[in-house]
Amino acid sequence: MAESTFFRSEEMSLIQLYIPAEVAQPTVSELGELGLVQFRDLNPDVNAFQRAFVGEIRRFDEMERQLRFFTTQIEKAEIPVRTNLSNAYSSRARSRQELDDLEERLSEHENRLLQMNNSHETMQRRYLELTELKHVLRETSDFFHEAASHQTEIRNSFDEPSAPLLDDLESGPSQEAQGAGLQLGNVTGVIPRSKMQTFERILWRSLRGNLYMNTAEIDEPVIDPTTDVVVEKNVFIIFAHGREILAKIKKIAESLGATLYPIDSSHERRREALFDVVRHIEEFNSVLVNTTQTRRQELMRISENLVAWMIIVKKEKATYHTMNHFNYDINRKCLIAEGWCPTNEINTIQTALRGVTERSGSMVPSILNELKTHKEPPTFHKTNKFTVGFQGIVDAYGMAKYREVNPGLFTIISFPFLFAVMFGDVGHGIIVLLVGIYLCMNERKLAQVDGEMFQMVFGGRYIVLLMGAFSLFTGMMYNDIFSRAMPFFQSGWDFHVPDDYPGKTVIVAEPNGHTYPFGIDYAWHGTDNYLLFTNSYKMKMSVILGVIHMSFGICMVYYNAKFYRKPIDIIAGFIPQMIFMQSLFGYLTLMILYKWTVNWFETDAAGHAVRNSPPSLLNTMIYMFLSPGSVADEDRLYPGQAFVQGLLVLIAFICIPWMLFVKPYYLKWEHGKARAMGYHQPSEHNVRVSTDSTRSEEAAGAVVAEEVEGEEEFEFSEEFIHQVIHTIDFCLSCISNTASYLRLWALSLAHAQLSEVLWGMTLGVAWGFTGTLGAIMTVAMFSVWFFLSIFILVGMEGLSAFLHALRLHWVEFNSKFYIGTGYAFQPFSFATVLSEKETV
């Protein structure tokens, strides 16, 4: 049994469970609480609707629908839901009787709630009609009164085009109107205010203005019982001649959502109707209040247990869904399950199985067998709240192959360090560090905050913490805090400025014999050649870090090959790759270090230069390939350089056919040797072999299934082409990836220059003023500088450095050794089931 480490994924075992039918549900429920087994589907060809427990799943689907309905009603009523449940109550498996009682209870609650909802909605709709009718009766009374006041304007002749449309509304039409066959009628009702303008236009165009219309706004808020939304409405009354015109008006009004109310033309009858409506409204008010209170009490009773019921239903549904993956042995009356679990946790699973058997009182125990198989197990990295963020960075690139070296272990250090190289600033590092400390210290409270972007940052809170700490360190190495220097130690340079210095000539600093103990000497800040110095320093530093990082990645090839027992990957992979890398770029790193250690401006006693001017390493690398074995005198770095470079180029070229030919021909020889010994290729179809288990005393001769997977036929041409592609990719990527690490220099330079420009354009300008104006400018410019520093230098520059560090790990580092063809371990776990958000 392998020890659990973060260097490799957990060792996994394929287990087989024989679970008695009478304890199947509590057993699977207990395994769901543990969350240690990823069950395999033993019925892949069976339709989901034809499986053994589809009836139970439909039953829990219906219960889940009822709970969602309760949740919607409770949220609409703004009733708080009780969430503080004890773990014992929420984790206990339910018996069949308890589930039947819960189903019956949910149905009773739903029926009562639906009945109250229907009654409440009906009464609300009737109350709405009475309210609208009340306003119609009040407003139309004014309309009729206004129309009656125009009786003096009515003419005796109806032939004149200017004759009024309104007649005696209280006493009926005049004799002339009756003789002419004209009938004056009205249409009254209520219409949404938003449709009023459209209603008027349609009436005017369809009736050609042959109507008289009056409207009034309803000041009282009107609530739609269907949507529970406040709707603004208007009362309208329309007078027109003829039944066909009145019928057309009614159709137009109803098509626009208006509610029509017939109104009597008699004043007395309208007044009596108004009194009746007001009385009915008062009665409905009291009934509505009682109904609403009863409904709210019912919802409050439901809310007390809603979360507990939801947990029970989700767990039971997940349990039976998992049991649908099992086979049923009719003879033994048990369920047979297969799944993956960590080898170190087999004893924990067996203990849980025995506990379920003892609690249920069953005489037949559940049996666990460990199977032998050729199937590739899932990959499971055991993480905690600190390592889960770094492991997520690796898993986003690709899931590790089973038991291969896990880059997540090295990412804990390398990722925040490479980020800090590009983001090095003490001030900005402190800001990021404080953000990380805040997120880590308040993680319990902040874990409840919703928001995808925030949860993404919160999940990587320890990454933020380390990025801030490493940025603080690199900022001290760069001697940079908000683009200012930090004179912590005595400088190694002295500037001798004469008293009559005009400020137009260049003053050269002289060494004073002191060595600055940590980082860059602060004397470099503000000098004319500061940018030239830091560019050279950071560019060479980026190459050194890149070569070290990639060489470390190549070293992981050795550990993978040793673990998988593939010596050919060491002989034809690790060794030539490492030699090729070090012959070229390892040599470049040594030249950089040597060039840093030599005093190129040393003079002899006569004052003449002892050495040539420092040679360009870029030209040295170019002519190393263009003219191997020869070095110009002015470009010579050390004695014997020509021979060493020629030898290194020859070794690098030898490594190319070494990587290209050795592995394919070795695999061909190994395949031919196996065939000569009588071994043949496995068939294409999976073969299921049954043997007796001897590893478990409880198995008592139980049948164990071993699966043998078909393998692809060996093809030398395919293997050779694959090796050609791999060799070309490695050789070219060594060059391109080394150049890619120059992004460390580029982003560090950009960050430092942006910080300096921002300082000079804000606080640098403000401090040029004095007095009251200087104080005002300082406060104003400090606010601008602080905001832009947070938004641009910390936010945008931090995100840019994060993405570039991500790319260096995914492409430059992982490509050297990471296979990443595995699949994740996804155990049956109630914690995962309950954490999934509802999607309806």
Automatic annotation (TrEMBL):
Entry membrane topology: Multi-pass membrane protein
KW Transcription regulation (keyword) present: no
Transmembrane segments: 417-441, 462-479, 541-559, 571-594, 642-661, 757-779, 785-806
Gene Ontology MF annotations: ATPase binding; proton-transporting ATPase activity, rotational mechanism
Source organism, top-level taxon: Eukaryota
InterPro entries in the record: V-ATPase_116kDa_su, V-type_ATPase_116kDa_su_euka
GO biological process, one term: vacuolar acidification
Main location: membrane
GO annotations of cellular component type: fungal-type vacuole membrane; vacuolar proton-transporting V-type ATPase, V0 domain
Keyword annotations: Coiled coil, Hydrogen ion transport, Ion transport, Membrane, Transmembrane, Transmembrane helix, Transport
Coiled-coil residue windows: 85-126
Region annotation Disordered: where it falls in the sequence: 151-180
Subcellular location: Membrane
Pfam families tied to this protein: V_ATPase_I
Family: Belongs to the V-ATPase 116 kDa subunit family.
Function (record text): Essential component of the vacuolar proton pump (V-ATPase), a multimeric enzyme that catalyzes the translocation of protons across the membranes. Required for assembly and activity of the V-ATPase.
Name by which UniProt lists this protein: V-type proton ATPase subunit a
Lineage: Eukaryota, Fungi, Fungi incertae sedis, Mucoromycota, Mortierellomycotina
Gene: VPH1_2
